[in-house]
Amino acid sequence: MELRTAASPKDVKHYTTERLREEFLIQDLFRTGEIKLVYSHIDRIITGSATPAEEELTLTAGDELRAAYFCERRELGVINIGGKGTVTVDGRKYELDRKDGMYIGMGSKEISFASADAANPAKFYLNSAPAHTSYPTVLIKPEGTPSEDVVIVKDENKVELGSLEQSNHRTICKYILPGQVESCQLVMGMTKLEPGSVWNTMPCHTHDRRMEVYLYFDIPEDAFVMHYMGEPTETRHIVMRNEEAVISPSWSIHSGSGSQAYTFIWGMVGENQDFDDMDGIANQDLK
Fold first, then answer.
1. Which residues bind Zn(2+) (predicted)?
2. What pLDDT, in 10s, does the model give residues 170-216?
3. pLDDT tens digits for 61-114?
C-alpha cells in the first residue's frame, strides 16, 4: 500500500508540476491481476482498485493498517467501471455489471473480487474510510428492482444539472449517502457529462468539513481532462488521462474541463455527510 501525507496550502502554492502530480495524482490505477491501494493521511481515505483476470483477488489489510483484516475498522465503497464481475463478502457472492456499486460494512472479514471474463475484466474502483460502527453490506444498482440486499438509486438521487450552453450538462447519480445507503462517513457517486459538455463542478466550491477524490474515466486515449485544484485565489491544474484519480484536500477546489465529455466517480469522507454542505466560489473570484 502506497502512503501519502497531508499537504499545507501554503506549501502547495510553491509546488512544481512534477511535485503536484506526485502528491495528488494517482496513475496506473487498474493493473490487470492486481489490487492497488493508496493510503492518504487526508482524512485517512484509501483509494484503490481491484482488477481480477483469471484468478480471484483477495483484499487484505497489509502491514500498513495494523489490522487483522481490511474492514476490521473500515468501511468500503466499490463501483465497477469494467466488465462483469463478482464481489464475495464473507461467503456471499454479489454480481456487478458495469456501473454497479457496493457498500461493504465494517466487520466484513473476507472480501474477494473476480471477473466473469478475463478478456474483459471487471475494474473495481475502491474508496475506504475509517468506521465506528457496522452498517449492512448492499449491492447498489442505478436501475432495476430492489430486494433485501439490493438498493436501487432513488429518482431524487439522480440529479440533472447544467446546460449545453454552459458546457456543463451532466447527471449526478448518488450511490452511498444518508437515506439510501447508510455509512459512517463515506459518500460516493458518479457524474456523467452529456456529449458537447466538458465542465464539471463549475461554479466550483470547497467544503472544509470533508475531502474528496475524483476518478476520471470514459476518456479516449487522445483526450484529457484539465483538473483544477488549489485555493480559490491560488489555483493549480493537473492534466489527467483515462482512469486516473486525484486527491483533493478540504481547502482545495476540485473541478475539471475536458477535451470532450467524460464520466467521473466522486468519493468524500470527513466531518459530515451533507452533500449540499459546500462553500461556493464565484467565477469572478477565481485566480
1. 205, 207, 212, 254
2. 999 999 999 999 999 999 999 999 999 999 998 999 999 999 999 99
3. 999 999 999 999 999 999 999 999 999 999 999 999 999 999 999 999 999 999
Residue 41 counted as an annotated binding residue: no
Please count the CA atoms within 13 angstroms of the CA of 139 that sit on its side-chain side: 24
**Residue 212, marked binder:** yes
From residue 101, alpha-carbon distances to 1, 98, 173, 254 in Å are 23, 9, 11, 23
Find cell 483544477 and name the residue: 228
The DSSP string of 178-247 is TTTS--SS-EEEEEEEPTT--EES-S-EE-TTEEEEEEEES--TT--EEEEEEETTEEEEEEE-TTEEEE
Over residues 260-280, the mean pLDDT reads 94
**Rg of the chain in Å (alpha carbons):** 18
Centre a 10 Å sphere on the Cβ of residue 63 and count the other Cβ atoms it contains: 8
How much is the pLDDT for 282? 94
Of the candidates 158, 161, 165, the one whose C-alpha atom is nearest the C-alpha of residue 196 is 165
Report whether 254 belongs to an annotated binding site: yes
Cis peptide before 9, with omega less than 30 degrees from 0? no
Number of H helices, E strands in the chain: 2, 25
Domains parsed from the chain with CATH numbers: 2-285 (2.60.120.10)
Residue 20 phi, psi (nearest 5): -60, -45
Tell me: pLDDT of 227 over 90.
yes
Q: Is 132 annotated as a binding residue?
A: no
Query: What is the layout of strands, in order, in the sheet containing 225-231?
Result: 199-200, 255-258, 225-231, 234-240
Q: What is the pLDDT of residue 263?
A: 98
Cα 143 to Cα 82, 122, 151, 172: the distances in Å are 17, 19, 9, 14
Cβ(100)–Cβ(140) below 8 Å: yes
